[in-house]
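User: structure tokens for this one?
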Amino acid sequence: MKCMADASASSATPASISIQICYARPDKQFLLTQMVAPGTSIQQAILSSGIIQQALEIDLTVWRVGIYGKVKTLDTILREHDRVEIYRPLIADPKDSRRKRAESKDSKKKS
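Assistant:
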């Protein structure tokens, strides 16, 4: 027979959870592992990680963030083993770039 105290102890909230903060720029990549309290938001984790002091160009008021490639809001609550990703703004519109490459290929074929 299992004791009720044992069951509640195993489902208790952990004191901290492990997450990663990820950011890449052309010349350097950052991957920081940190422990945060359960209930920590993406914004709180980024600010406490110190990554903004290491990469001064990061602007959370404009830049998007996500978890494992899915865009999330700054108030999203983190879970164990989440990887928070900070996305740089796009320099060129991907659709325009694709169209220009296709046009370039077409003009080379005609020559």
